């Protein structure tokens, strides 16, 4: 057991991980101009492996370890090193703080990549809301219309299920939703007698007159991806085909009737909900101190806020924190009159990341201080 730990904790593995990480950064920097910062992060760092797509095919071949794999190996290497070198000494304290802090940082960053949430909340003056949208992801919604006089019932299929082509057999619905194909980005064209081989063709709805073809997904800040999905509906009992629909981000709900009921299919931005509600009380534009830039300020009121609690104001670089979420003002064109937008961020490992960085810096400071003291002792005190 100890020999295995020593092998995992070897410096050769540490150096190899750092070399591969440098290669990963190099390839990511080379491709950033073509796919953007967000695309580079998803392809190289938020993945176990980096894949190369065979031209004109959906075959992907791994050619480089991704950020998750490098982080996992380095995590095991550092954790094993702490176990192997465990001893009650001053040098072990230095090693524990530096290696332990870096190990905790890797773990917290990995957890954050899986659990953090980010989105845009659109606020209207004097209107309460708790919803926000993630413009980087979509979801397929099947609406069961007319459930009540004021609302429809919504059944949601996530983007992860769409990407893996996992359909949904929803007990409340008389049909099954089968995902034929999902495109992270697409372009649309009118149906003609001749269509491309890779086109998404539908028999019902707006897709009967339009088709979609795949485009490379862009991660550039100003580029807008247009996801599209091709779905087929089947009857639960008889496997009768109801039809095939083309769903595109930006299109409205496509309504159809079946068994004397109305339903709708809609591909929209992924929605999330805050554990609290908020209302925009006031919106203003303030001139900066040097009078070179306007800064937006938004005064809000929380639904669970007491009357004695002051109404917080969100300004540029001055977010408001509430129940694990941070609310940031966005300096951009307003979506409509008396409306504004907030960026909603939730990072449950933020405190752990700060703590791990503090451990690493403290360990490095102790190591540096001990080296300086040793040098001073050799040169001056012992003389």
Sequence-ordered SSE layout with sheet pairings:
Elements: H1 2-8, H2 11-45, E1 49-53, E2 60-65, H3 67-84, H4 90-115, E3 117-124, E4 128-144, E5 153-158, H5 159-163, E6 175-183, E7 186-190, E8 210-214, E9 228-235, E10 241-248, E11 254-258, E12 261-287, E13 294-302, E14 313-315, E15 320-322, E16 325-329, E17 339-346, H6 350-381
Antiparallel strand pairs: 1-2, 3-17, 4-5, 4-12, 6-9, 7-8, 9-10, 11-12, 12-13, 13-14, 15-16, 16-17
Helix pairs in contact: 1-3, 2-3, 3-4, 4-6
Word description of this protein:
Helix content is 32%, strand content 36%. The chain is an alpha+beta fold. It has three domains: 147 residues, no CATH class; 85 residues, no CATH class; 142 residues, no CATH class. The protein starts with a helix and ends with a helix. The model has no long low-confidence stretch (mean pLDDT 84).
Major sheet details: 6 strands, antiparallel
Query: Into which percent range does the helicity of residues fall?
Result: 25-40%
Distance between the termini: 47 Å
Q: Give the helix/strand class.
A: alpha+beta
**Mean pLDDT reading:** 84
Count of the domains: 3
List the defining traits of the structure above.
17 strands; globular; alpha+beta; 4-stranded antiparallel beta sheet; 383 residues; 3 domains
Short structural description:
The protein is of the alpha+beta class and 383 residues long. It is built from 6 helices and 17 strands.
């Amino acid at each position: 057991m100890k020999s295995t730990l020593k092998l995992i904790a070897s410096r050769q593995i540490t150096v190899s991980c750092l070399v591969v990480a440098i290669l990963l950064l190099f390839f990511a920097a080379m491709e950033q101009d073509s796919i953007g910062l967000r695309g580079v992060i998803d392809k190289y760092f938020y993945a176990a492996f980096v894949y190369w797509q065979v031209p004109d095919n959906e075959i992907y071949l791994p050619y480089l370890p991704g950020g998750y794999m490098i982080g996992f190996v380095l995590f095991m290497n550092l954790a094993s090193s702490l176990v192997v070198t465990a001893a009650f000494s001053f040098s072990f304290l230095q090693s524990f703080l530096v290696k332990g802090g870096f190990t905790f940082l890797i773990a917290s960053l990995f957890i954050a990549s899986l659990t953090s949430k980010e989105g845009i909340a659109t606020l209207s003056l004097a209107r309460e809301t708790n919803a926000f949208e993630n413009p980087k992801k979509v979801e397929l919604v099947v609406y069961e219309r007319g459930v009540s006089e004021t609302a429809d019932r919504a059944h949601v299929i996530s983007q992860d299920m769409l990407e893996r082509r996992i359909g949904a057999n929803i007990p409340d619905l008389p049909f099954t939703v089968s995902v034929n194909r999902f495109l992270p980005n697409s372009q649309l064209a009118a149906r003609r007698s001749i269509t491309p081989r890779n086109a998404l063709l539908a028999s019902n709805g707006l897709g009967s007159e339009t088709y979609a073809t795949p485009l490379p997904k862009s991660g550039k800040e100003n580029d807008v991806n247009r996801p599209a999905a091709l779905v087929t509906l089947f009857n639960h009992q008889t496997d009768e085909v109801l039809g095939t629909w083309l769903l595109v981000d930006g299109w409205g709900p496509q309504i159809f009737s079946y068994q004397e009921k109305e339903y709708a299919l809609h591909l929209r931005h992924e929605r999330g909900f805050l554990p609290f509600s908020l209302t925009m009380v006031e919106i203003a534009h303030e001139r900066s101190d040097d009078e070179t830039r306007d800064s937006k300020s938004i005064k809000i009121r929380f639904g669970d806020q007491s009357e004695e609690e002051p109404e917080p104001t969100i300004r540029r670089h001055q977010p408001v924190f509430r129940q694990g979420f941070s609310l940031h003002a966005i300096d951009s064109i307003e979506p409509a009159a008396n409306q504004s937008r907030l960026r909603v961020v939730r990072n449950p490992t933020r405190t752990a990341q700060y703590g791990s960085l503090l451990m690493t810096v403290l360990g490095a400071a102790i190591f540096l201080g001990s080296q300086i003291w040793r040098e001073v002792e050799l040169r001056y005190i012992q003389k």
